[in-house]
Design goal:
two-stranded antiparallel sheet, 7TM_chemorcpt, transmembrane, cell membrane, two-stranded antiparallel ribbon, single chain, mainly alpha, receptor
C-alpha cells in the first residue's frame, strides 16, 4: 500500500526510458512489462540518433576549437548507460526494495493522513528542484540547437531523484526511531492519538514548506517497543544495501559527469570558446547541485545514526533503565554500529561533503592544466 504514493513518479520514469515496476491503485507492485523494456530501447536509440546533428563537426574535429563536443559525447554515453543499467537491475532490486519498505511501514503503523502529508512535503521540495531543471531545458531549446544536452540528462536526473526520495524516507524514519529512544530515555509516556490535521491548513502549510525532513506529529503518534525499533532499523539497513546495488554505479557515473562537465566548462569559459555563457554554466553546475542535495540528505542520515548510538548508550548507563531491556539495547547498539546507514557509490565514494569538496578541488586542478595546455597550443 505504501508504494501507491510513488505511482506518479514511476509513470514519469517509464516515459523517459527508466523502467520501473507497475504499481496498482492498491499499491501492489507488478513486474515490468516487455513493452516498457522495448520503449527504453527506443529512448536509447533516440538519444544516439540525436548526435547525428554533430556529424559535420566530427569530420572536422579540432579539440582546441571544439572542446565542448567532448562533454556532449560524455553526456550521451552516461545517459545511455543509466538507462541500460536501470533496465538490467530494475525489476529484481525494485521488487525487493518495495517489499522491504512495505514491511518497514507496516511495522511503523503510521496513519494514512501522516504518510500522505509526508509525500506532499517530499514532492513539494523535489518539485522545486525539478522545475528549476525544466526551466533550463526550455531555455536551452529556445536559445540553442540540437543535441539538447540538458534534455538528454532527464534519465540521469530521474534516476538520481529516485535515490534521493528513498534516502529522504529513510532519514525521516531514523528521526522517528530517535524520537522514540529519546522518550524511553526521559521515561515519558506517549499518548497514542492521531492529531487532527484536516482542519488546520496553516499547520499543514508550515509543515510542508519547512525544510526539515520528518513526519508530522510523530511525538504523539504511536508507541514502539525496542524489538520493533531493531526490526525497523534492520529493514532500513537492508534498503540502503539494495539502493547501493541499484544506484551505486549510476552515482559513480554521476560523479564522473559532474567532474568532466565542470572541468570542460571552466576551460571553455576561460579560453573564450563560449557561445551561450549561461548555458555552459548551467551544464557545468547542475550535476554539482544534484550531488550537493544528495550529500545533504546523506549527511543528515549519518548524523541521525550517530544520535541513535548516543541515545542507546545513554539509556544503557541510566540507572533507571529496566534490566530486561539491556540485552535488547546491546543488540540494537551492535546492529547500528555494524550496519551504519551510509550510501556509497560502488564502495568507492561516500555521498558526503568531503567527496564533493574533493571533486571540486580536482576540478580546479585539472582546469588549470587544461587552460595551460590550450594557451600554449
Amino acid at each position: 500500500m505504501f508504494y501507491v504514493y510513488f505511482r506518479p513518479f514511476n509513470l514519469i520514469c517509464n516515459f523517459f526510458g527508466l523502467s520501473k515496476p507497475t504499481i496498482t491503485v492498491e499499491g501492489v507492485s507488478k513486474n515490468i512489462s516487455s513493452w516498457l523494456k522495448l520503449w527504453s530501447i527506443l529512448i536509447v536509440l533516440a538519444l544516439i540518433s540525436s548526435f547525428c546533428f554533430l556529424s559535420n563537426q566530427y569530420v572536422n574535429f579540432d579539440i582546441k576549437h571544439n572542446l565542448q563536443i567532448v562533454p556532449d559525447i560524455n553526456d550521451l554515453i552516461v545517459n545511455v548507460l543509466f538507462i541500460v543499467i536501470n533496465n538490467m537491475k530494475s525489476e529484481r532490486i525494485c521488487m525487493s526494495l518495495h517489499q522491504v519498505f512495505d514491511n518497514t511501514f507496516a511495522h511503523l503503523n503510521l496513519d494514512g493522513k501522516i504518510l500522505k502529508l509526508f509525500f506532499i512535503k517530499m514532492y513539494f521540495w523535489f518539485s522545486l528542484l525539478t522545475i528549476t531543471f525544466l526551466i533550463f531545458i526550455i531555455m536551452e531549446i529556445a536559445h540553442s540547437y540540437p543535441p539538447y544536452i540538458l534534455l538528454m540528462r532527464i534519465p540521469t536526473f530521474l534516476s538520481i531523484l529516485h535515490l534521493f526520495m528513498h534516502l529522504y524516507l529513510i532519514l525521516a524514519t531514523m528521526k522517528l526511531i530517535n524520537d522514540e529512544l529519546s522518550t524511553i530515555l526521559t521515561h515519558k509516556e506517549k499518548i497514542k492519538t492521531v492529531p487532527d490535521v484536516d482542519n488546520n491548513l496553516g499547520r499543514i502549510l508550515k509543515y510542508v514548506t519547512c525544510p526539515g525532513i520528518k513526519f508530522i506529529d510523530t511525538e504523539i503518534l504511536v508507541q514502539y517497543d525496542l524489538k520493533q525499533l531493531c526490526s525497523i532499523y534492520d529493514n532500513l539497513s537492508t534498503s540502503v544495501q539494495l539502493l547501493e546495488k541499484y544506484h551505486g554505479l549510476q552515482i559513480f557515473l554521476s560523479i564522473w559527469l559532474m567532474f568532466t562537465s565542470a572541468v570542460v566548462g571552466v576551460t571553455v569559459i576561460v579560453c573564450k570558446q563560449v557561445q551561450i555563457l549561461w548555458l555552459v554554466i548551467a551544464k557545468s553546475t547542475l550535476p554539482s547541485v544534484w550531488c550537493f542535495v544528495g550529500c545533504y540528505i546523506n549527511d543528515q542520515l549519518s548524523r541521525e545514526v550517530d544520535q541513535t548510538i548516543t541515545l542507546i548508550i545513554k539509556i544503557l548507563i541510566d540507572y533507571r533503565c529496566v534490566p530486561s531491556r539491556k540485552p535488547v539495547l546491546e543488540t540494537f547498539k551492535e546492529l547500528v554500529s555494524n550496519n551504519r546507514l551510509q550510501f556509497t557509490a560502488c564502495s568507492l565514494f561516500n555521498l558526503s561533503y568531503a567527496m564533493l569538496l574533493g571533486t571540486l578541488l580536482n576540478v580546479i586542478t585539472y582546469s588549470i592544466i587544461l587552460i595551460q595546455l590550450f594557451t600554449t597550443m
